[in-house]
Here is the input.
Amino acid sequence: MTAAPPIEDYGLLGDTRTAALVSSDGAIDWLCAPRFDADPIFGRVVGGPAAGTFRIAPARPATMLTRRYRQHTATVETTWRVGERRLSLTDAMVAEVAGRLLPATLLVRRLVADGGPVHVDVDFDPRLGEHHHPPRTRGRGRDLVCTWGSLAVSLACAPDIDLDVGRPTVVTVAPGRPLTFVLAVAHREPLVHVDPAAAGDLVSEDEVRWNAWSAGIDEDLPYREAVVRSLVTLRLLTYSPSGAPVAAPTTSLPEHPGGVRNWDYRYAWPRDASIGIGAFLGVGKLAEARGFLAWLLHASRLYRPRLPVLLTLDGRHSPPERGLPDWPGYAHSTPVRVGNGAADQHQLDGYGWVLDGAWTLEQAGHRLYSETWRTMRGFADHVARRWHEPDAGIWEIRDDAAHHVHSKVMGWLALDRALRIADTHRLPARQRRRWETARDALAADVKERGFDAARGSYTRSYDSTDLDAALLVLPLLGIEDPHSPRVRGTIDAIAAELGAGGPLLYRYPPGRDGLPGTEGAFLPCSFWLVEALARTGRATEATRRFEALLDHAGPLGLYAEEIDATTGAHLGNYPQALTHAALVQAALALRRTESCRRPTCLLAATCGGPQ
Amino acid sequence: MDWAGWALFGLMATTALTAVMIAAQLAGLTRLDLPLLLGTVATEDPDKARVAGFFIHLAVGQGFALGYAAAFALLDRATWWIGALFGFLHASVALAVLVPLLAGVHPRMASHRAGPASTAALEPPGLFALSYGVQTPLVAVAAHVVYGMLLGLLLTAG
Here is the structure.
C-alpha cells in the first residue's frame, strides 16, 4: 500500500445522508452507501487498495496549485499544473433530491483542462463489505452498472469513454471539452440514471441552496468564514432523514498512527446533538437546533428514562463492536472497528448536556411541548436517583467506572436546568423538592471530594490528582461563580499541565487511559479553553488561542478529533462534529465578550454563564 | 352483514389494537406511535397530535372493520382464528406497504431522500417500520392479530 495521504488532506463531500472523503490526489477513498453507517463502496483510507477507490488525477507529474471549497458550499475544487497546462477537478454530491427523479446518492466529478489537452488517470474500483466484494458489472448504454444484491452503483461519463471496473484508464481532457462523471447509487430501489450534461446544473442548484443556507447565519460573527465552514460541516454530518448528528463519517482513523485507538464514529451521540443545539441556536439557525431536540426525543424513546450514550442513525442500539481482521487500517493502525462498545456505558454527563440543550431552546423563546417536558423530567429523575454512582465519564474509557468530577458537575447541570425549566412548566412540589435536594447534595459532594485544595483545582475524579480538560465547561454551568478562584484555578491548572504546546491541550494526562500508545492533543478541549477564557474575562488570551487554533485547520478548514502536537498532523476520525461544534461555541463566546462590553447586552446568562 | 356489530365491535377492536400498541411503547418495545404519526398530519404539537391521531385511528380502524365484516359475510362465518389470520395479513400489508408510503404524503415526515431543506420532524419508518425498533413488526402483528381475533369473536356473537 502506498502511504496514505495525511488525514487533513481529505475534503468532505456530502449530501446529509452519507459522505465521501476526497484527497488532493483526486482519490475518493471513503464513501459509505447508501448512508453514513453502511458498508463503504470506496474504503481505501482504512481498508487498503483492496477496499476500493475512485481516483481521477493527472496521469503525469503535476503540482497542485489550489484546492478549496467554493465559498459557503460543499463543492471542492482542485487545480493542478501539468507542465504548462492546467487541470481542474470539481467534486460535489447533490444534497437536495427530494421531489425529483434523482438517485438518493449522486456524486458529480467534473474535469476541465486549460492551456492544452491533459492526460488523466481514471481508476474506478468500487468494492463492498468486509471482504471487499467486487461487483457484478454490466454496461447499460454508456453507463457502467455495478451491483451487489440490493445495492447498485452506476457510473456515467460524458463525453463517452471506455471504462472497466478496477482497471485504471488514461483519458484525455481537451480544453473546451469538460469530462463529467456521474456516480449514482440505488439501494433497494431502481437506479436512476442522470445525464452527465444535466449534472452540472444540479450541483449549481445545490450550491445556490448552500449559499442561501449560509446567508442565514448571523453576519456579526467573529471569524465568520471559519464558523460557516464548521456549520456547513455540521450540517453535512446531520443525517437528514432522522436528524441524527453523526459524530464523524469515518471509522478507525487512528488517534495514534500504528496503534489500537481506532473507533467507529458513524453513530449519533445525544451529547453532540445537545451541543449542536447551542451552536446552531447561537448563530440564528433555529430549525437545526429544534431538529436536534426532536431527534433526541424520538431516538431515545425506547430507552427512557435512561439516555443511551450513542445510537444508530435511526435510533437503534449500535451493533456489537468488532474488528475487521483483514483490513490493514490507516497507517497500519489496527484493528479497524465497526460498532462501538461504548454504547452500553453509563455516562452521567449526557443528561446535563441534553437538559442544558432543552433549557437553551426554552431561553430562546421556544417553549417545550408537554411531551418534551415529560421526557426531561424523566431524565432529571434518573439523575437524582443515580448521581452518586460511578460512571464511565465523557471520555468513554473502557472498564474505568469512577466518580468523574465532570460527570458530577454535568449531573448538577441536569438538575439545575430541569429546575429552571420547571419555573415555567408544571412540576409536582414533591418532585421539585427531590431535585433540589439532589442538586444541593451533588454540589456539596463534588465541591468537597472533587476539588484538590493544595493545587487549587478540580480534579479528574474523586481521590485522583489528575486533571481533566472536560472541566473547562465549569464557567459555563453556574455551579461555581465563573470568576471564583476555584474556577480560575482549574482553568489555569488545565492550561498549564495539560498544555500540548501553543493553543493545544490534551484531554487528560497522556497515557492515563489503560490503552497502549499515546494520543494527540484533543481539539474540542482546546476550543473549550478558548470559551472558558472568554467567559472568565480573558478575551485577549482567548482570541490569541482561537486564532492559533484556526492555523491548525486542515487545508480545507476541516478538523479531526485530535492533532499531533509535534507534527501538526490531524488524528482520529475526520472531520469531527464535536470539534467543529466547539469551534462555533468558542467563536460565539468571543462574540459575547465583545457584545458584553456594549450596553446592549441583554442576557446576563449568555455573557457570564447562568446566574 | 352485521351492521350494528360492525359499528360497536369495530370501535372496540380498534381501541384494543391501540391499547396493545401503546402498552408495547410503554414497555420499550417499539417507537411506533400510530396516533402520533396520524395526528401530526394535522398539528405539530405531539400531545395535541396524539388526541387527533387517536380519533383518526379510530375512524381508520372502523373502515378496516368494514372490510373484515364484509369478508366474514362473504365467507359466511366469523371465527377468532379467521379474524387472527386477517389481522396477520392486515399487519403485513400495513408494515410492508402502508406505513412506508406515509413518508410520501405525510407533511411532517422525512423520507430516506430528505436533504438539508427538509424541515420534517418525523423519521421515516422504513420497510416493516424497522426504523422504529427491531421489535416493531412483531408488536404490529400482535396488535393486528388481537384486532382481527376480537372482530372474529364478537361478530360471531353479534
Notes: Chain B has five helices and no strands. The radius of gyration of chain B is 16 Å. The mean pLDDT of chain B is 88. The helical segments of chain B are 3-26, 34-39, 46-75, 80-105, 136-157.
